[in-house]
Amino acid sequence: MSQKEAIAAGKTALGIEFGSTRIKAVLIGEDHVPLASGSHEWENQFENGVWTYSLDAIWNGLQDCYRDLAADVKAKYDETITSIGSIGFSAMMHGYMAFDKNDELLVPFRTWRNTITEEAADKLTAELNFNIPQRWSISHLYQAILNKEDHVKDVTFFTTLAGYIHWKLTGEKILGVGDASGMFPIDSTTRDYDVKMLKKFDALVAPYNFSWKLEEILPKVLLAGDNAGTLTEEGAKLLDTTGNLKAGIPVCPPEGDAGTGMVATNSVAVRTGNVSAGTSVFAMIVLENALKKVHQAIDLVTTPTGDAVAMVHCNNCTSDLNAWVGLFREFAESFGIEVDMNKLFSVLYNKALEGDPDCGGLLAYNYFSGESITGFEEGRPLFARSSESNFNLANFMRVHLFTALGALKNGLDILLKEEDVKVDKIYGHGGLFKTPVVGQRIMAAAMDTPVSVMETAGEGGAWGIAVLAAYMNNKADGESLADYLNNKVFGGEAGITENPVASDVKGFDDFLKTYNAGLPIERAAVECLKME
C-alpha cells in the first residue's frame, strides 16, 4: 500500500504532544515512519503568581496544530484526512487541572513549572516516605489544601494536561500509567496508584472533612496497549474544525513527555535508560529492583507499561556551553571569517577529546538558573582556574562539556554507586549529542556505561505517542511494548554506540571532586553578583 493509499484508508496513527513552547503532531504509516507533521508555537503566561496556559490557548493550539498537519497531508499526498487508525495525546507531565461537578475548571491550570508547593512537597515526602517533587499534581492539591483555598471542597476530578485533552475528546477520565506516576506514586507490582499511600493521604486530610476520597478524584490508570476509548462526535469537531474527521477512532492512553521520550529512544526495557540533554538535562533508568532509600535528588516515575523508572532532572545543561561557542564565532567574524556553526561546534567539541582527562584543573559552573541537586535557588555561570591549571583550548572545551553534566552526575552517582543500579545501555538525544561521538564519549565517561544515539531519537515525543497509538491497534496477543519496539519499530537498530574509556571515567570522577569542592565559589558568585 502506498503512503497516499494508507492515508486514504486510515492505515495510520497520529500522535500529538504538547511541549512547553510547541505543540507538535506526527502522522505515521504502518511501518511507523512519519508521513506528515504539523506544529503550533505557544508560550505559558505568568498570571497572579502562577505559570499557566489558558483553555483557549490549549484548544486554539491543538486545532491549529491539527490544521497544519492536515495541510501538510494535502500538500504532499493530495488527500484529505477523514479517518485515522488510532490517535494518542501526550503533554508535559505534572501540574494541576481541577474540575467541579459541572466539569468547570476551578482555578487556572497550574503547570509543572510552578515552584509554589514547597511546603506540601516536603510534608508529603515525609508522610509517604517517598520523594514527592514540587511539580507533582498531588503537591499542588495538598498545597491548595494547606493554603485553605476554597475551591478544594468542590473538586470532583483533577488531572494533567494530556488527561484533560483525552477526556474532552473521548469522554474518558483516564491516564496512562507513566503520566499518572507524576500525579501520585504508582505501585509497580499492581501498576496502579499505591493503595497504602492513598490511605495515608486520606488520613492526612481527614480533619478537613472533604466529601471526596483521593482515589475518587484521580483519573483511572491504564497501561500502554489498553483501549482508552474512541473519539466522540464532539471530540472530532474539537480536533478538526473543518468537520472532515470522523468519530469512532480508537485513542490510546494519554501519556507524559517522559514516557514518550522512552518510546522514541527504545528505552522502556529494564536496565535501559535515556538521557535528554539540551537547555536542561534529565536521565531516566528503568529499574530492576526498588531503591533502598528515599533520595530527594531522584524522582520515581514509570514507563508506559508501569515499570519503575528513576529520574534525575537538572535545570542547566548546554546554555553556557552554547554561549562560549557564540563567543568563538564572534571572535572569528571579527577577522572577517564566515562561520559555519555546525562546523564550529564540531571543531570545538572534538578539541575537548584532546584535553587532560580531568580538564587540567579548570573549573566551570553552567548555572543560568538554580540547581536543586546541588542546593542552589539561583545560578551564575562562571569559569575559574588556578595559576597552576593547564589552561588551553582543549581543556577549556572539555571542562564546559563536563560541567554541563556535573549536577546530573551527582544524581546519577546516587543511583549507580550508592544504590548499585545496573544499566546495560543508555540512549542519548538532544543538542549535546548532535556532534557525532563527542557528547556520547562525555556521557559514557559520566556514567561508565555505553551510550547510543539513534536516528529516530530526533523524531521526539509526538512520534513516540503515535507509536504508542499504533501499538494499541497493531500488537499481537501478549506482545510486550519492549518486544513491539524492538521487532516492529526499530527493527533491531542499535544505533551508534560509544563505550566508556577508562581514562575518561577516572577523569570525570576526579573532575567531580573539584566541582563539588568548588561549589562555595558558585555560592559566593550568587551572593555577590546580584541580578538586576
TrEMBL record:
GO terms for biological process: carbohydrate metabolic process. It comes from the Bacteria. SUPFAM superfamilies: Actin-like ATPase domain. Residues 13-259 form the Carbohydrate kinase FGGY N-terminal domain. The keyword Kinase applies. Residues 274-471 form the Carbohydrate kinase FGGY C-terminal domain. GO terms for molecular function: kinase activity. The keyword rRNA processing does not apply. Keywords: Kinase, Transferase. Belongs to the FGGY kinase family. This is FGGY-family carbohydrate kinase. It comes from Roseburia zhanii.
